[in-house]
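pasting for ref. prot 1 ->
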Amino acid sequence: ILNYDIMARFRRRTCIILLLFILFICSIMMALKTLRPDRAGFGDPFGLGLLPELQQRTVLLDSKQNSLNKAQGDTVTRVSNLHSIAVNTMKASMSPVKKLEEELSSPNYNFHIFYYTWYGNPQFDGKYIHWNHPLLPHWDPKIANNYPKGRHNPPEDIGANFYPELGSYSSKDPTVIEAHMKQMRSASTGVIVLSWYPPGMADENGEPTDDLVPVVLDYAHKYNLKVTFHIEPYKDRDDRSMYHNVKYIIDRYGSHPAFYRHKTSTGRLLPMFYVYDSYVTIPEIWANLLTVSGSQSIRNTPYDALFIALLVEERHKHDIHRSGFDGMYTYFATNGFSYGSSHHNWASLKAFCDSNNLMFIPSVGPGYIDTSIRPWNNHNTRNRVNGKYYETAFSAALLVRPEIISITSFNEWHEGTQIEKAVPKRTGQVVYLDYKPHKPNVYLELTLKWSEKYRKEQEQWLM
């Protein structure tokens, strides 16, 4: 009987140990899968459908043109009102700025962060904008029929998988803008890459936002941050319209103390423009604008600048060089989604850029999830793994010793790439993701950590 009891206990213990070992192996495999996705992700149709060759994402707001024309006379008044509200708010809070400067880490002007001002709510805009984002159908009707349609219904139901600590805010709210600046500064980022459309134009789900730029610049200056522009793929974007729009930005905003200029290796101080979906336009058109001999050349004029193209596929690096761009960035926060966003390709891209006198600006992100607006796209979801995904991306970026690192994003809530503060929230039918077990500011703290690490390592690189 004693031997039987001993054997039974031994078998029981062995089974428990074996079960725990299997669970451990499974958890390791899941973590590795999340951190190191398949390299073939870009070839998958889920990935390709997000790119504009198959789905045009921006339109001129033709349907709003009549109302815009009617409101043209009020534009100056509206901008003036926005600006005066912001100035009054800033005056009221200027006294603690010196103390704030002592508490916050110094801004790192080599950390650039993508920022969106396209959100609206009834209090400031008369309606919800972007929080009520429609559910985008799959391009294959057979697949589309398997997923819900319609649009979100804020404030409880928003077009995001996470919920902002500030709620369904308006980008025009001065208290929101200030809170954003304070968060970005607390993370030791230095340059805001502001999503921008020409006056009177916007993405297909939004409203024009150019009149917010002066307010953003003022608040950025208060926190010693700089602002550069992320030029979106507006309708009929070409060499001629780009020349006029770059001229407009520099003439209108270039004298502001928060307007970003980058010091080049030759000592020149030049504005910088990120050009989203640059590959949609053929290299010959870009060359007209960006090469010295081009018919619309902006080179060696008062409007010369550094132009940074989006690299998606490997072949784009040759097009970017031929076009006359000054560098490339990768934008997407999904490791494995595109050639450019795959961490294991950054070393070869950096080597290509070094050999062709181009800047390589890798984009790091905390994770990715857009199933609130693309319910069929869970293939491209990247779990945050409580911050480990973000740190893996930073680690990969530092390995290639880039001059600048870009962060996707501060507040692109639709795609779940935000590092802005998020809070747990549960409504009738929706349970939002959150940053637990960490606090709402965990991704700001991680950004600060890696900003300081980058500074220390960069000192060694320069030695």
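and prot 2 ->
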Amino acid sequence: FLGLSVPQYFNEYTAINAYGPVHTSARWFNDMVNVPFSSEAFVAGLLAYFLDNTMHKKEAQIRKDRGKHWWDKFKSYKTDARSEEFYSLPFNLNKYFPSV
């Protein structure tokens, strides 16, 4: 709901008043705040990032929901046999630029 309503507010405010809700004497600052918050994708992504990082990170089910359990295998290069394939460069460039 917030991902749709906040940008709608910014867009309607701009359409009615010819400037955004953030209106200071510095136009560059106004644009830096008004333009991103007029985008549904930006507001939804910002909200998702905030909510995702407010959860308890140590609980096993939350780690699984966030996909962290999958990345644990690849934290160290030598812990998984698939690391060579996972970290290899495309077009066989790892012959010239070897992995660490």
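The helical segments are 2-17, 27-34, 40-52, 60-66, 68-71, 83-87.
The first helix runs from residue 2 to 17.
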